[in-house]
Fold this protein.
Amino acid sequence: MAVKEKIVYVTRDIERALGMAPNEDYLIVTNRTPYGEKIRDEYRDSVILVEPDHGDLLGTADLLRHEKAAAALAVPNSYLLIFKNTARIEPIIREHAWRLLNPPAMTAEKIENKISQVSWLAELEHCLPSHRIQFMKSVAWNGEPFVVQWAHGHTGAGTILVNSEAELNSLKEKFPERRSRITAYVKGPSFTVNAVVTPDGVYAASPSYQITGLPPFTDGPFATVGNDWALAKAILSAEDMQLIKDLVRDLGAKMQKEYWRGLFGIDLIKDAASGKLFLVEVNARQPASVTFESALQEEARRTKSAEGLTTFEAHIAALLGQPLTKPIIEVTDGAQIVQRVTKTVKSVPEDAAGSLELAGYNVVTYPNTEENADLIRIQSTEGIMEKHGEFNGSGKEIMDALKQDVA
């Protein structure tokens, strides 16, 4: 897609910005990492690397304060793009009078905050599982497991499954005055849908099955570790797909009224008992799966002559105020999975990345050490899940390369 204006994407992790190839009109400013150097070597004039402080990767706010970011954004007709706008970042942007493409942080907070989100949903609140907003000190045990969600959290962090009165009492003792969303515990497969809001329309991408809580990739039962587009197509019925389409349309219409532009994402869960789909989260930002989804769409365009836009192209067009004249390309296959830092997994074998690449996977490694951060991301043009919670042969091949035990 031809971009007339120059866009500078400033991001902690370069992978977030690779929804389209860097070029003279699309620059990336990011931390120097082995993977960042690999991309910079391929797009030398369009990727700007910043040396991390004391080995720690710089966050977006610190990168924006760096002279390299300022120099890139000093070019006439340049726009700034970031992964997620926050109240901490906005003062830096105002100070430099940069033109930010992302919607306001206040709007994102209102929509994404687990507490304010309930009232924002208004007539769509019924799409959530049974829920209530309470201070932790007043939550009572009723004999059934339930889910506690704090106001903020991502990739499953800030979401706690309470299985007993003792677990509840522990939370009440630690956080008596914290407001929380108390939600009925629904068992079943989860899905992610990315969507783009423009002034005149709402455009949904293909749903992906959300690989969630699978050990040893994560310690968190609600932590997202990957996506599988092939399994989503197999699990979701025609009725499910229509419900998703209607929900994305209705949510997008509400976001249009907030003058939202560009990407948002929703997470859903399909109740294994009733087959009903429930809305779990609305993410007012670029969802993490967009980069690889766009790569799969690019591949479909190259190998299958698929017509349309990638999800990231649609995002950029919407942020620039350009109409979408083509649909978002459908994705019917492909998957990715991330090994996160856990209590027992602090690194991956030195030969893992190389062996996986030789087997035909795309691999991204990260120099992270903090718990729940990404260690290695493995991407496949084919699905890696046999069914909900169970790997197919490719998934087991990935497990074997990471030297993990297969259940």
